[in-house]
Amino acid sequence: MLLTELGQRLRAQRERLGLKQNDVANALQVSPQAVSKWERGENGPDIATLGPLARLLGVSTDWLLDAHGENQDVFDATIFTSTVVGAYQKSLQMEAREFAAWANGILFQLTEAVLRHDGVPLRYMGDAFLCFFSGVHHQLRAAQAAAFSQRLISEDLVIGLSSGEIYLGAMGHPDYAHPDVTGEVVNIAFIVREWAETNVRKGIAATTSVSNNLDEVFDISQPTEINFRGIETPISICEIR
After folding, report:
1. Contacting residues for 10 by C-beta, under 8 A, at least 6 apart
2. What are 10-51's pLDDT values in tens digits?
3. Which of the residues 86, 149, 190, 223 has the least number of beta carbons within 10 Å of its own beta carbon?
4. What angle is formed at CA 174 by the lines to CA 184 and CA 133, rounded to 5 degrees?
C-alpha cells in the first residue's frame, strides 16, 4: 500500500471521529509532526505504533494496510472527569454570561493541564470536564494532570479517575457528531467523581485500577470498597493527594 493512500485513510478516519492531529499524537505519545507526516504520506507509523493507532481510530491494522478486517474499536485508557463543588449554587447567584466566563476560566486551565500531560480533551458540560489518557503510563499521566489541575485552580475542584477499556467514536447526528467515549470505565469515573464531591470536598478520587499504577510521588489512601446502586461488584476507591 502506498504511503499517500495510508495517509489519506488515516486523515479521513481521524476527521470522521472529530479528532485533531494533536489528539492522535498525545494518545500515541508521538509528536504532532509525526502524525502530520503520516497523513501527508511522507512517512508511515512504525510497526509498534500500528496496533495502538488502529485501536485509537476504531479500525483494524488490516484496515490501515488496506486489507479489510474486523474493527478493533476498544483500547486501554484512563478517564478523567471533573467538576466544581457548589457550581450549581454559583450559577443561581450569577448572570448567565458571568457564569459562562467563570466556567470558561476553569475549563481553560483544566484543558491546559491535560494537554501538558498528553491527554485528549473531549467534552465540556457547564463547569464539568471529560477527557482521556492513553498510551504509555496513561494512569500516571492522568494523575499528574489531576494533581497539577488542583494546584492551578483555587475552587473546590473534584476529579474522578478510572482506567480500563473504552470505546472512542463519533457520537450523534453525522452533521453534528463529535468524538466521545463509552464503556463501563467511563460510567465508573463519573460515579467516583460524584462520590468525591461529598467525601473528598476538594481532591482526587481514583479506582485502584489507577492508583495501583502510580509511583511513590503520590500519597495514596487505603482503598475503600463501596457498593453503588446498579453496579454488581464493589468499587475500590482511593484518595490521591
Report:
1. 38, 39, 53, 57, 64
2. 888 888 888 999 999 999 999 999 999 999 989 888 888 888
3. 86
4. 35
